């Protein structure tokens, strides 16, 4: 399972990191985000590029499970 | 077409911002200056005695309200998130640079939109520069620019700027003699404190919920072809435009616009600096205020940088007047651009080296 930890980065960096990680169209990717604005932005970007997003809460952070 | 909740929030926020700005001007704020984050922070710098241009000194309650509105709603919604540590000194300096650029143009991105919506075509020059600046910043982000990770910090640190805002509000209400107030010029033009504060609080709440950002809208369009955030930009423009037309305040042209100058080149260059700097900083001056209220100390430091920049702009005659830009202002804009380019280039180089 691919994992991308964007903790500590402010928008828009988590989205750009996600964009780069999705460049080769992996079947799935877990993205850790630690603030709501990034959570919304990464979710929106992933959905716009054809991934479905499942969200799990974890210690004040979120894991966004992206699957194609 | 189904409108997403995010887009709906941004449209609503745009309507609120446009209406609040219109009302504040009716109540006494300077023309097309219902809100101007850079100008108001500069006025605050003057009110605190950090710059001594007699015409631009006032403790603008709009600013205090914006920070506190974002603070209160983020606490209520569980989104208050104290963090710090992402290049604070660089952010401070870049904030000062953005402020000086804005004062060469005479407005932050929000006021640029409000000026456009009132028919001020000089703001169209500003928009051209702003788009170029945001594009340059977006390229840097794409190449790997980053000011680094933040870390969690204490709730006290995260709420420091909000506590300062409350204290300034108390001083404004109870001991105004401690502050300086313009008796003529833009600083003397002000809506009643209660109206300004209420407008600030309201917009602070809406802007926190919607994540409205003027630089972010264009940046997302360039970087990820996403039009969500720019909806807010357009909504502010349309709501202010409709109110200005209905209220007879729409006057199309370059000459005689309120608190504006007609030097196209430096209107463009001032906003290049603002667009470029705002993208590197992760948000326009309005967004920095909101993030500061949410507990982001890096944004709070950026806001302090904007205040310092306002003071520097007036102490060293860098700010434009209605007569046009100053020689110092032109030189400063070029130096700030070089500074931004240097910071971006070094950051990109270091980050790439780390990756390989």
Key terms for this structure?
heterodimer, A: 68 residues, alpha+beta, Translation Initiation Factor IF3, 4-stranded mixed β-sheet, 2 helices, 4 strands, globular, B: 356 residues, mainly alpha, two-stranded antiparallel sheet, 14 helices, 2 strands, 67% helix, 1% strand
Written account of the structure:
The complex is a heterodimer of chains A (68) and B (356). Chain A contains two helices and four strands; from the N terminus they run E-H-E-H-E-E. Chain A is α+β, with helices and mostly antiparallel strands. Chain A has a single domain, classed as Translation Initiation Factor IF3, CATH 3.30.110.40. Chain A has a four-stranded mixed β-sheet with strand order 1-2-4-3, with helices on one face. In chain A, helix 1 (13-21) packs parallel to helix 2. With 356 residues, chain B is mainly alpha-helical. Chain B is built from 14 helices and two strands. Chain B has helices at 5-26, 37-47, 61-76, 88-105, 109-117, 122-143, 155-174, 193-210, 214-224, 230-246, 264-281, 285-293, 297-315, 327-355, and strands at residues 83-84, 151-152. Chain B has a two-stranded antiparallel sheet. Classes of the chains: A alpha+beta (68), B mainly alpha (356). Chains A and B meet through helix 1 and helix 2 of A and helix 9 of B.
